[in-house]
Design brief:
Elements: E1 12-13, E2 20-23, H1 29-39, H2 47-54, E3 59-66, E4 69-79, E5 82-90, H3 99-113, E6 118-124, H4 128-136, E7 140-145, E8 155-161
Bound molecules: coenzyme A (COA).
């Protein structure tokens, strides 16, 4: 588990919690892959897949660290005017504390700053927690894809406009 507790220039503290949201780096990837395997039981990304994502200039990935340990991560594909939330996850022991909301706001803010006018994503139709998270940040359902996942699960496609005033609400920092 990562123990580097130092904050980089791109780190942002979440309120007074001591938790930091900052760009994902290679030294976070073992922890990221561990969380990935905890929360995406069916088809987790490998460390190598995260390496490949970080190597792409169109990607923005962040982690949340608590007392130095990575407890969550998320990533986006930015190709203005388009953008796409690739993934977001929080380790089970830290869920329900507003961590995903802060990471999502950071990614949406980065997308908006890059000139993206909207963001889309796909989420399993039975993932009520994630759908509620996305709806709380302004995403709306635009379509469904039946049997989209290898196990036959359906996907919901959601979209968030970024080009209106204050479309990306910011969580308290
Ligand atoms: C979805 C996930 C990322 C949410 O992370 P989190 O840090 O627990 O979420 P937050 O605490 O920031 O919650 C933000 C909002 O999301 C919604 N939400 C989060 N967990 C929820 C739950 N279990 N039930 C209903 N709504 C939930 C709520 O609207 C919440 O706002 P509120 O607390 O004001 O009600 C987390 O449950 C997770 O990692 N799940 C497994 C991986 C996954 O499914 N990722 C999404 C793939 S598309």
């Amino acid at each position: 588990m990562s123990t580097d507790a130092g904050a980089s220039a791109d780190s942002a503290m979440i309120g007074e919690t001591g938790r930091l949201v900052e760009p994902m780096r290679w030294w976070h990837l073992d922890d990221v892959a561990r969380i990935e395997s905890e929360v995406f039981l069916g088809d987790p990304w490998s460390v190598e897949q995260f390496w490949q994502e970080l190597a792409q200039p169109t990607r923005r990935y962040v982690v949340c660290r608590d007392a130095g340990a990575v407890v969550g991560y998320g990533g986006a594909y930015l190709m203005p005017p388009d953008s796409d939330i690739q993934t977001i996850a929080v380790t089970p022991s830290h869920q329900g504390r507003g961590i995903a909301r802060v990471m999502l706001d950071r990614l949406l803010g980065d997308a908006r700053a890059a000139g993206c006018t909207h963001t889309i994503l796909e989420v399993r139709s039975d993932n009520a927690a994630a759908i509620a998270l996305y709806e709380s940040r302004g995403f709306a359902r635009i379509s469904e894809r039946r049997a989209y996942y290898p196990d036959g699960g359906d996907a919901v496609i959601m979209r968030c406009r970024l080009d209106g005033p204050d479309r990306v609400a910011q969580a308290p920092a």
